[in-house]
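Structure first, sequence second, as always.
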């Protein structure tokens, strides 16, 4: 056997393996998205400004004598615009998570990945970082030219300025994030005198670093490789989901031409192959290749293509929001059974949540019976049961309470505690004894009802059932 021929025959496979390995581990090329103007760009800018304004502005608002939104972990209470929640109110957090999930399903089934393109934190902060980059380095062509030239004093100055602004913006983001857990005014005062605690310092730096890395460096890679939403979004799509799509029937065959040319006579479609839709895409895809999981539905390609169509004198909508059914000549059905079911289910959950919040009782009473002895007989012949009551005041004000008991004729309540007074968010243990005449007991185990009422607000009351054990 000729060894040389055998080696030569093996080389093509080896070369192919090397090419595959090189393609798998190729360096990620930087994307320079072109700035675009138009209706959707204005809507996206409005969304970015609104969401950033809410994030940075809300911690500075005051409501009811404290920060409007404050997750006070050491005190185990969460202030949300006048509503104070405690760890015992975890059920409301579960409601919020269910509502958020259903809202995501509803919006995705209706309009695709519109959340990604307009409201996702990764998109919002990336847009802010891109704006800073354009202000410092210039437009797309200037950025490419700057990155391609060798390092010099001007390049170092421009790059250092951009990254300094990015870092400051990121640290301010981290500071604001921590301000939702530590009163932000107090946090700012301690920052000025350099007296931050270790955990506050850690989270400011950590969250700032995460913002700087995700929005400044990784950008579209977070959407393409890290975000799970892009992977399971197709499960919520159907043929009537609104998507951004390129009209192949109208645009193909694509090709360049003069503005005054009769492109139909030349056998060309409306697409002039200017690649503007690719240049403005923040994830670097070509929308003309069809729906792709990397598309975040930011609509930049729609604005860019509409602008080109206006300049060429063609109708808008070569790239547009549409549905798969409409693209194939069918009738578009935005409102359909799936959307109605999602909407009704979401409305039901939100109604239950709103009702439970409106009727939320800020007083809890737990009755724990002494299990060391079933009952005792007092010196005067009465049957005694011992209980420990745990009173939880979930209101923002201190209250004193009156305690009563019923369920057995002649039942007497005894307690060594003269007054039941509980501070806001406090828990008070109240040991009590119940005395009953044996002749009044109808069975060995009788039900009794404890009633707790606030002295300054009769509507603030709670009842709790317990068992009284006798002979």
């Amino acid at each position: 056997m000729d060894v040389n021929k055998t080696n030569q025959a093996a080389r093509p496979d080896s070369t192919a393996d090397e090419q595959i390995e090189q393609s798998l581990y190729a360096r990620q090329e930087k994307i320079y998205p072109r700035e675009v103007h138009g209706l959707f760009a204005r809507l996206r800018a409005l969304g970015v400004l609104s969401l950033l304004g809410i994030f940075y502005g809300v911690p500075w608002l005051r409501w009811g004598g404290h920060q409007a939104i404050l997750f006070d972990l050491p005190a185990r209470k969460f202030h949300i615009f006048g509503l104070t929640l405690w760890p015992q109110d975890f059920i409301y957090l579960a409601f919020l998570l269910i509502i958020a999930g259903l809202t995501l399903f509803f919006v995705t089934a209706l309009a695709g990945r519109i959340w990604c393109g307009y409201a996702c934190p990764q998109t919002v902060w990336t847009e802010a970082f891109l704006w800073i980059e354009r202000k410092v380095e210039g437009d797309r062509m200037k950025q490419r030219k700057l990155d391609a030239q060798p390092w010099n004093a001007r390049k170092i100055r421009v790059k250092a300025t951009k990254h300094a602004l990015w870092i400051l913006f990121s640290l301010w983001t981290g500071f604001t994030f921590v301000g939702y857990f530590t009163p932000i005014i107090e946090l700012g005062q301690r920052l000025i005198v350099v007296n931050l605690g270790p955990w506050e310092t850690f989270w400011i730096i950590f969250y700032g670093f995460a913002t700087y890395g995700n929005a400044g460096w990784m950008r579209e890679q977070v959407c393409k490789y890290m975000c799970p939403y892009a992977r399971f979004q197709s499960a919520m799509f159907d043929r009537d989901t609104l998507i951004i799509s390129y009209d192949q029937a109208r645009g193909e065959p694509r090709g360049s031409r003069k503005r005054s040319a009769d492109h139909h006579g030349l056998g060309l479609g409306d697409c002039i192959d200017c690649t503007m839709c690719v240049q403005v895409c923040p994830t670097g895809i070509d929308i003309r290749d069809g729906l792709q999981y990397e598309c975040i539905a930011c609509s930049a390609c729609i604005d860019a293509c509409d602008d080109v169509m206006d300049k060429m004198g063609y109708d808008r909508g070569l790239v547009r929001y549409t549905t798969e059914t409409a693209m194939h000549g069918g009738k578009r059905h935005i409102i359909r059974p799936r959307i109605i079911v999602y909407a009704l289910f979401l409305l039901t959950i939100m109604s239950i949540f709103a009702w439970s919040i409106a009727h939320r009782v800020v007083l809890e009473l737990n009755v724990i019976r002494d299990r060391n002895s079933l009952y005792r007989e007092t010196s005067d012949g009465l049957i005694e049961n011992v209980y420990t009551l745990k009173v939880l005041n979930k209101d923002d004000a201190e209250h004193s309470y009156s305690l009563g008991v019923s369920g057995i004729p002649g039942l007497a309540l005894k307690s060594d505690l003269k007054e039941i007074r509980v501070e806001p968010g406090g828990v008070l243990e109240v040991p009590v004894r119940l005395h009953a005449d044996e002749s009044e007991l109808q069975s060995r185990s009788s039900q009794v009802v404890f009633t707790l009422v606030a002295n300054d607000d009769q509507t603030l009351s709670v009842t709790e059932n317990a068992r009284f054990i006798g002979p």
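Margin note: The mean pLDDT is 89.
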